[in-house]
Amino acid sequence: MTFVRTFLGDIEPEKLKFTYSHEHIVCIPPYWKERNEDDLLLDDESKSLQDVIDFKNAGGNTIVDATAVDYGRQVEAVKRISEKTGVNIIGTAGFNKAFLWDASLKDNVKSIVGYFKTYGEWIENASVNDLADYVIKEIEEGLEGTNIRGGQLKFGTGYNSISPLEEKTIRAIAIAHKETKAPIHSHTEAGTMALEQIEILKEEGINLEYVAFGHMDRNLDPYYHLQIAKTGAFLCFDGIGKIKYAPESSRIEAILNLVKHGFKDQILISGDTARKSYYKHYKYGLGLEFIIKKWIPRFIDQAEAEGFDGKKLIEDFFINNPMRCFSFKK
What we know:
- This protein is of the alpha/beta class.
- It is built from 13 helices and 12 strands.
- The strands form 3 sheets. It has a 6-stranded parallel beta sheet with strand order 6-7-8-9-10-11.
- The longest helix is centred in the middle third of the chain and has 17 residues, at 164-180.
- It is globular, with a radius of gyration of 18 Å.
């Protein structure tokens, strides 16, 4: 049996249709809130709703919300947006990255473990199996005590490093995957450490075809991309529109290089729109419609100039590949 788990229930993979593979819709990360980093707080449900409406009106159908518990998920708000728009939204169980765990997260942690003051303290004191049990519960019962079940698992690591606590969460996610068959998303800080993550996942006996590695366009190294692709994993180019990191020409060249080497079926595209300044209805940014309205035509032009069927590749990246990537296969 194959299905995709969304905020509103399980659906057939074919119902995903046009999909963004890594976004954030409503989230209030405690780490950034404590530091008064307002740009990183997506805290107005009505404004996020308007951007999701733009996405739908432009032709979008599904969004993967990659917000984990330690990044300030607002589960009920995101569910309401899905209900109001009819856009499928996939939720995320698991963890983001270690530096966020230093923040005081007493309210959320109290609901999880009762008494630990921070996620770092919780993860340090909990066993790998305890962490796995928590994540399994988020997939099979609901996120943060709700009945809204997660549709993917997540772990993350820092820039050019994997801390012992991060390794612990990777192994916990591996256990949870084997129990639930949920797909896995990896946060790689600035696109680093994917190969090292892969070694840990291999030790845990994980089939890499169930894993998507995020932020691949933060590290535009063709050799590195090919080594990841050879494992069968998905590569998520989720920084579209973020010219401060790289021009679109470089992203597209990296994507087409993977296509040239036969890996078109392992590519995902999204925007990781996690700042108010990226959203149209918060601070006049490019918004959730940008990829559909502006980037896709640009990609098709560049792809066809190099002899590819650009429209077919777009169908693969946004429709066919997400159907496989985000499916539970039981």
